[in-house]
Amino acid sequence: MEEALQRRSRTIDNASYLEVRNLRSFSGRQHTCNGATTENRTGMTAMNARFDLITVDCYVCVIDRDEAGCRSVKNDIERIVAEDVTALLTPERRLVYRDSQGDWGEVLLTYRDGTPHFGGFCPLSPESDLRKALDMLTPAFVGAPSDDDLLTMGYRRPFKLLDDGRIAAILTHHDSQHALAAGIHAFGHDDAYYFETYESAASALKQWNGVGDPEGWFLHPRSGRRPEDDDPANEIL
């Protein structure tokens, strides 16, 4: 399977930055996924907006952190375009933002000699497919997914925050294969253990704190491991 996550991080004043390709990633706090580590970095210029910055395909997304004493992203957008994100913008890329009220909009840009300039705002309607996709992505990038987010992504209860900060839940592949998924992010999870029944997977998750292996699994697909007393012939495919 091709690597699902390709990322690189850099520091930008007032922002935490994560470039995302293939629409798969996680940001918001230090997190390790597929061998890559990302971490929020904060810089502060008095009263400038503070925000999270995500690039997904052809979109550059500015997410207002709504922090006391700082300008809103919308009020600071001309400076953000000129100073913070100018190197990321091209005529092929669109700049969108989420304001402190959670509303999405697009920043209209003009280019002179290859340099982007602020040209106005265009709201994104709640019905737009782009806004719906951004609303789904954002919790997993810049904060923990809610229960509703996890249900929308297809995960089943119980949901649990493990001792190491990973989010875990159950994902049913078919009647005889249920994954205890750990490290859930925007479009999947980092790790999983397979169980033969939903009940056994749910019971194992309730008892597991994220250290070592849970009890009762029959396959760890990421490594190909099986419990020492398990026979590969017992695997249910």
Automatic annotation (TrEMBL):
This is Uncharacterized protein. Residues 218-237 are annotated as: Disordered.
